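Researcher: Let's continue the batch. This sequence belongs to histidine kinase, and it's 425 residues. Same format as the previous ones, please.
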Amino acid sequence: MQLLSTNRGKFVEARRATPRSWENGAPTLASPHRRLTRGAAFQAITVSLTTQRMNSGITRKLFLALFATGLITMTATALVVRAAVGGHRWLCGNNLMYLTVLGVALLGTVALHLARRLLVPVTPLLEATHRMAMGDYSVRAPTAGADELARLAVDLNRLADTLARNDRSRRDLLADISHELRTPLSILRGEIEAMEDGLRPLTQDAIASLRVEISQLSKLIDDLYELSLSDVGALTYMFAPVDMTERVATSVAAFGDWFDAKGIALNVHLPDDTLIIDGDLHRVTQLLGNLLENSLRYTDGGGAVRVYLSATAAQLRLEIEDSAPGVPDDALPRLFERLFRVEASRSRRSGGAGLGLTLCKHIVEAHGGQIAARHSPLGGLALAITLPCHRQAPVGACGPCGGSSSNASRPRLPRLDDPALATSC
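Model: Same format as before. Here are the structure tokens for histidine kinase:
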């Protein structure tokens, strides 16, 4: 019997087709030198397990260092013992003590040299980690080699990149928030000071202007608060079946007059089926309001906006496309970052704070869906949202998303001052 090592580190028995002989009633292999004792079997298992674990660079280096140190120690000890047994006179007196001290010194020198060799790739990692802990995220560790330390250096460099990017985002966020808060406050202060000095009379138009600035400031604060709640998972959602066909129709009707006032053609394509999802009615209404306001705010007058709603058996898909101005390619992935705007066309003059699409992304992901941005065939921006359909279809449902083809139960479309649409955008 012979122990063979498999690729999984296990051992199997391989029986050779060798004739057996019987000695004293005990079976043995025909060749005495092929006998495998318990000690040899244990040694074979140990060596095989050790070999299986030597597939990593740093482990191999440590093993070789310890093995070399132990081999030198055992060799020196064997020579001394052999000389002592042979009765050599040079081992008499203090010679043995001197030899022991010399051997210890030699062994210590070898061990120190090996330790320094092993610490050579570790020292740069320690220095890089220390500098990162002190706030210097520009440091990079050398990635030479292919062992665990090299892979650790690669991960450490990636960590430094992430920390540097997060630090820049934090600084930019603070600067943008300060600017967004300062702008309406400065306008309010200027308006009030002008009224106090008698430069501007207290008229209904002046009060309306102050009310607009206060509303924008209130929206910004509410959006920042909701984003902070969403970041820590504290934004509440009350999930229930929501008729998305009715909700989209309601939201589009609420924005209809505003699109007409700007001269934007609003084309809506809704299915005949009632499409149902599991969602929070307030958050879904806020989502649709943010999307439509984004198209209304950043589409040039005389343009067009298209709204498509469709569904399969498992997913609902909502697409909103608008006309020029468009978004550059490098800005598409960043549209959902908070306080990000394409300054060339979607600037602060349009009134947005750059938080609406960020809130949309948080709401969609909280409902288990996805949102993506791409170029619109109309020349502007296209936003595509996919949401999972209602998990349990109602009785008698025959359409996608558990919907029915009847429109008789669809409620009347509300007015522009629908309280359900009075959300921050």
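Researcher: Any comment?
Model: The two ends are 78 Å apart (CA to CA).
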